[in-house]
Every structure is written in structure tokens, then in C-alpha cells.
Amino acid sequence: MKLIFKIAKNELRNLFYSPVAWFLSITFLVLCAVFYTSGIGPWAKSQDVSVMNDPNFKGYGVSLTESIFVNGEGVFNIVLQNLFLFIPLLTMGLISREINNGTIKLLYSSPVKTRTIIFGKYVAVMIYNMILLSMLGIFIVAGLFDIQSADYGLLLSAALGFYLLVCAYTAIGLFMSSLTTYQIVSAIGSFMLIFILTRIGVLWQKYDFVRDLTYFLSISGRTHKMLKGLITSNDVIYFLLIVYIFLGFTWIRLQGAREVRPWFVKAGRYMAVMITALLIGYATSRPGVIGYWDTTAGKTNTLHENTQKIITELGDEPLEVTLYTNLLGVGEYSGFPQSRNNYLWALWEPYLRFKHNIKFNYEYYYDVADEDSTIFRRFPGKSLKEIAALVAYASDVNISMFKTPPEMRKIIDLKPEAYRLVMQLKYKGRTTFLRIFTDNDFWPDESQVGAAFKRLTQPKMPVIMYVTGNLERNIHKKGEREYSFHSLDKEQRRSLINQGFDLDTVALDYQDIPTDISTLVLADPKTMLSATAISKLQEYINKGGNMLILGEPGKQQMLNPLLQQIGIQLMPGILVELSKHETPEKIIPYITLSGADLAPDDYLLNLKKSKGQDSLRVGFPGAIPIHIIDSSKFKMATLMTTVPGKSWLKAGRLVTDSVAPIFSPQEGDTRENSFPVMLGLTRKVNNREQRIVVCGDADFLSNYRGGGAFMSMAFFSWMNYNQFPNYTPKPKPADDRFSTTYARANMMRIIFVWILPAILLILGTTILIRRKRQ
């Protein structure tokens, strides 16, 4: 051990007696300083302006630690992207310098073992790497002072990732330095080897064995989790194995120069080092073996506790996941073998962390719906088999791995899933589908995965029943006014069917309302409800059933006979709100704090946290206010209301394609400070809280309006007592505000970018000059 440190001390002396180490140190310091100060300056300036305009400024609502250090042009992100430029220049002379100077022969003739030489030189560079880390530490400490409640756990995790990566690069550079006497060749070789290890993870991914091998060897993305604050045992072990591999290779190379051995003995040693590393890497990267440590303050890299509870309900029974990939379907590339590692690690790793016994199967096929002629028009004169062969060739996959339509239809009917890329989950003999979505995220998130898990464990899912028979909005149609988007559309991430709800319709003139449903929806009937229908609805309400009722201007009479029984009615007329950009019937009411209590949706939670300092509005393309006539039957809360002083109730006919309307009391127009357009009604019935939502607009839930976005999910969740959807709100980051000012940030820029590098330059120049004089 003493010899190792003596060699390390001598190597450090050589490093700092050469201009290379000083040049790299100064460049590294300037790089860190520029990106830290250029990141913090604009944020601090923006905060100063915000505080001047609003003394109640609460912060940015995002993690500034992430923004300054790891996102985009964050300090760690930029440093790690450019680290490969530094280390080869540092390590290029570690061994080759000894060979060129002839000192390697002295080392060989001494009683010093080869491994001692290697460890001594490697320890020296590890110490230099610590110096680089300490330079980064300057900005970490500065961040702790400049950012209010900075997430130090994330910073320490990112620092660990940096140090492991730089040590891995060092081991690579040390090995390349042992292969040649030319330092430039050694540096270029290190660049090339790092590049190969960075890109090897995308090579030969369609072959099973090679895919796992190259994916393990790839160094690309290995620090990504650590930059986000998640330390995993397999990533740490990977870097240790890279160091082991290249230090082992270096020992074999140098030891081979000291002894005469057959070539196959040397080759066997290389193979032994590689095979042991691969075996250890494989054994330590299996689900159930990997350890996780989420160092972030808000545990942002860990599944929400709601999702964890759902996974706990699965118990120890195995879960089987089959990915069905249609060569001619939507999302097919993400299901191909070359995308499998991304599928497993990007989508499923967070769940494998808590449930290890998930078995993954893969089925490949080609098929189209019988009535779909689109693909045949693209390939005129070709059969489906010929088309599949052409597409497979273009996609660089083997057509033989894909089942034909008859073969696949014998196994499973995927027509209801439109032959898209889809996953089928199987647990204790029960199955459900988990879908992909054609948005930026593509894969399902915690909400959809949690809902799918619930379908496997719960005996019955909540049922939302839509009333039909009087030209109500239809959940099976995709027209502009219809309701498929938020309900049954399997391609929509937020649709109720993908959030764990079952949906159905009921014609009240011929059918009874089931007693076990979660919510009944009556949406904009165009014709008068029959006495039978009203009787059944009243009976349902009297028994404590939850209900959503939506009306439209001009059709108040269709719903008022029912609404009057619960103490409210839709007022005659239509609300008018003048706007520079929209026609007057389009109003934009805001969500009240009572409305923000509906569900733990991120938008609503942020509204609650603002405590009235902010607002959240939803567009209503034609609405009517709701009037309370008897408040004794229900406890009533206004969920959405018009902006005070902005609207009035137009009594007569509203012309929307002419000049702006004028408030006219003579014609019966009425003006109030604010008109409620959505009410929440509650009362106790049979020891259970009954919940009813009444809305003066039905269009905002329509397909044309995006299905009501987050608001529709919120009141359906509320009427289901917030059991579904599986909301996973993340805590508001505490580090969303700076402790510094723009003036101080400018001063720090001068210190970090100019003064500190200048001091380092003077120190390095002084040492080098004194060394030269000696």
C-alpha cells in the first residue's frame, strides 16, 4: 500500500509539473463557472422583477436545483457531455511516458509488482479527479446558498455520477496509454473507445443475446438516473466493472511484457476478465437484486405512494405482461426487438422496483381490420402478405417472426384494440389491456398502469352510466358534440376507460337504472323526458345515487322538471361575456376553491396552494347560470362561476355573428356580480354521502372541446369518492425560489468566471516556471 501511494505521489508530481493538468483544470473551472452563472443570472433577474411587481411572489413552482444543475444547459449536464474531451488528454502519458523515458524497465527490474504500478498511477488520477470534483463542489456550495432550500440530495447524487464516470474514463485512458508509445495515438484511441462504448448500446439490438450484451456494455445514459437524484446499485456496479475491466486489461498488457507466455494464455486472461465482469453485471442487474436510493427531497424518482399501495395488493403472485406488436399498426417500432430495452427500462423499471416477479412475453403479427382498405391503396395490387414483407424489409425486421392474421386471431382478438401496439396484463387468470398513446409521452403513465393493476385485483370497477333515449350526447360517436373523447376513446390518455372506469348506457323508457353504478350522467337531452324516465331518475336520486347533469341554453325546460326536485333550476336565457377575440356566447368561468377540492389533480392542487392569488379558467362555449330555489335539501357549493362584473344573462335572442350585444334591462337582461355555472350538491343518504354535479354547459365535455380535459376527470373522481383515477400528485418543490439577487449573481459571475481561473492560472504558471528553473 505504501508503494502504491509513493507511485501515486510521484505521478501527481509529474501531472502538475506539466501544463496539461493545469490547462485542463482551468478550462474545467471556466466551463463550470460559465454555465452556473449564465443559468442563475436570468432566473435571479426574473425573480427580482417578479418580486417588484408582486410582493406576494411565491416562487417559480419548479425545482431550481434541477434547472440550474441538471436540466438542459445545467452545470452537471454540460460537464458530463464534454468530459470525454478532458480525460484522454490527461491519461495519454500515464504509461507511454514511462516507456518513452525508459523508466518502465527500471520498474520492471524492481521488486514492484505490476498491479502496484497500475494502482499507483490510477490512484494518482483518482486524486486529480477529486480535484475536478472539488471544483464542481464550489458551485454546489454556491447553489446551496443561492437557491432557497436547495435539493442537496440531488446534487450529491449528481456529484457521485460525475465522479464514477470520470473514473471510468480514466481507466479507459490508462489502458490505451499502455498500448502505444505515442501519446497522441493514446488520446485518439481513448476518444474512439469512449465513443464506441457510448454508441454500442444501439448496435445489433434486434438479436436477443447481443442486445443484452451491448446494452450492458453501453456507457451512454448510465449517469442519467444519478443526475435526477436516483442512485441504483446496477449503475454503480457498472462503473466499478468498467474500471475493473480496463485496469485488468492494463495489467495483462504490462504483465505480458514482463513474461513470455503463449498468445492463447494472454487471450484467455482477457476473456477471463471480460466474462467475470459480464457475469457480475448480469447477476447484479436482475429485477429484485437492484437496489434503489432516491436522494431527492420530494422522492420524484419513486412511484407515488398510491401506486405503491396498488402494487402491494398484487401480492407475491406473478404478473404476466404480453406486448402485442402489429407490423402494420400504430406504434409498431416501439414494439420491435431493437426497442425492447427502452420498453423494459423506460416503462417497467419503476414497477419492477416494487414487484420483481413480472414476466414479459412478446407476440409479433401483421393484420388490418377487415373493412380497412387504407394500406391496400398505398400498395396497389399487393396482397396483405406481400405488403407485410415489404414493410418488414423497410423496417429491418425478419418477416418470419410475424404471425399471419389467421394464426393471430386464433390466439387473441385484437380488433377492439384497433390492432395497435398494446400490452395485455394477466394475473390470477384475469386479463386487461394497457394501451399506448400517440402523444409525446407515448407509454402509459402511473395513472393508467395503476388503473390496469386495479382491474386485475378488484372484483368490480366503478361504472359510469350515460342516459340515452332523448338525443343526449353519445359516448359511442366521434362527432363534434358527442362524448366519446373523454369516455370510451381508447386512444386518449385521459379517457375514463383508461383510468379504471367501466362505461355503459341506459335507455330509461325501457331499462331500469342499475343499483351498483358509480355515477349516472344525463347530458343535454334534446327532447322532453318521459314521465317514466323522470320517475326513475327521481327514484335514483332519492336513494342517494351520484349524478352528473349537464344542460344547454335553449333547452332548460328539458331538465328543470328534474332539477326543481333537488332545489335548483337552469335560468332562462344565455350568458354573455364580451371578448376581443371570441363571440359573446363563449364565456370563460373560473374554478372556485370549492371546485379545487374536487380531486388531487395537479392543476387544482396548484390553485388551492395559491389561496385565491391565482385563477384557473375553463372555456364554456354557451352556458346558462344555475339558480338555487331551495337550499334545504342539499348542501350546495359553487364549483365554477363567471368572472365578477364581466357577464350578464341575455333574456332574448342572442345574435352572435353581428355587432357586439348591449346589455338591455328593457328586454329582460339581468346582471349580477357573478353567475354560478357549475354546482356541487351533497347530502347524507343511508350513511353515505350523495354527490351530484350540475353544469350549465354540456359542450365543454364534447369531443370538439377536448372532453373537458382535467376538469372532467376531477368531477368524475369526486363522484367516485376519489378512488379513481389513480392520481399521483408530486409535492411542490421547496427549491423554487432564489436566495440571491441579480446584482449578487453578477458579482458571483465576475468571481467565478474571471477571478478564480486567474488565481489558478497564476498558481500553475508559478509552479511550472519554478520547476523549469530547477
From TrEMBL:
InterPro entries: ABC_transp_unknown
ABC-type uncharacterised transport system domain: residues covered: 489-711
GO cellular component: plasma membrane
Entry keyword Signal: no
Pfam families according to UniProt: ABC2_membrane_2, ABC_transp_aux
Superkingdom, natural source: Bacteria
Keyword Mitochondrion applies: no
Transmembrane annotation, as ranges: 20-44, 74-95, 116-140, 152-172, 184-204, 236-255, 267-285, 747-769
Key words of the record: Membrane, Transmembrane, Transmembrane helix
GO molecular function terms noted in the UniProt entry: ABC-type transporter activity
Protein name per Swiss-Prot or TrEMBL: ABC transporter
UniProt organism field: Pedobacter hiemivivus
Organism phylogeny: Bacteria, Pseudomonadati, Bacteroidota, Sphingobacteriia, Sphingobacteriales
